[in-house]
């Protein structure tokens, strides 16, 4: 190891040691702490280790594993959050992959913890998803001769600026391959790790959204709450920072169209109480979703306190706003209502989904507004396109951008094949072996 890496590892490890007590203070990180600090590690050799930071990356990991199929590889999938683990457990158990992948919480990036973890299991290939650049993990993989593939890679300008002072150090622990989701992301990664390591790929999220089929009214589990053709407007994934604007939107829509039904879906359930207080004092007739038993009356607001029903409520909506976009929060997933045949309205802040491409706004599939007044006015208008037309255009757009999962699975196969050759080569008596780069 280069001397600068030794110094960096010591400083980095000391910083993590100082931070460890806060792991046990954090309620979120205390869950599964034995796995996070590298205890209860199975003594097992894995062919492939996939690290998926949170919920979004967990879905990507599921797509990759499904794409690999029954390869009979021993696969370990780790995640950093409880939500990610729940998604992995739920979806991978339904895949029927043989053998079924092992699922664990990822160890903290403390050098001693990572080294202990890697001492128990050395995978043939490590796959990191999106923005997982962890120094201790990358250094441990380098020492263990475990190649790293960073797939579906994204790197923002602020993140690049933060990494640039450490460019020389990062060069010593760089992933073997980086597959970026846009030419812009590829250039940013190339600035850090060199152009010879970086490639472009379609975002795997395009493959995943194609699997979400429109939910017909007769098959919709929420249909008995809403009459066919009800003027239902959904305010989905609303974040705390944009609540004031959304309150104005609710008041204006109901003032202009008193028979409208509004479905208010906060992004985080801990905001339910604050919305209850607003609705109670505003004089608006409202219900909690969990307490619905009969059809909702026109002019009502349904406050969604049940998780996981957004696709079903989108499928019943006339118009949809997707939150996290009226305030500078990066936006939430506006492809979900498109999958149900509804053209969504978003605010001006959607950088988390710039990978989708601005063409989706240019061709009218998504409408962007700049403030709460524009949002209310737009949601009050009747839909410009039928559900069938929206879905047809959406399918065509997404299919033109698909193929990321196949590319990643192919790259995994090539890199694992080269790893086998390299290990067989090291077992050779004369140590001579020629391996062509993939």
Textual characterization of the structure:
The strands form 2 sheets. A 7-stranded parallel beta sheet has the order 3-2-1-4-5-6-7, with helices on both faces. Strands 10-11-9-8-12-13-14 form a 7-stranded parallel beta sheet. It has helices spanning 3-25, 27-30, 33-36, 55-68, 82-92, 111-120, 135-143, 157-163, 167-171, 183-193, 204-209, 243-256, 272-282, 310-314, 335-339, 359-362, 372-379, 387-399, 404-427, and strands at 48-52, 75-79, 102-105, 125-129, 148-153, 177-180, 198-200, 232-238, 261-266, 286-288, 301-303, 319-322, 344-346, 367-368. By secondary structure, it is an alpha/beta fold. It is built from 19 helices and 14 strands. Helix 4 packs parallel to helix 5, helix 4 crosses helix 19 (404-427) and helix 6 (111-120) crosses helix 7. It folds into 2 domains: 32-209, 3-Layer(aba) Sandwich (Rossmann fold), CATH 3.40.50; 217-399, Glycogen Phosphorylase B (Rossmann fold, 3-Layer(aba) Sandwich), CATH 3.40.50.2000.
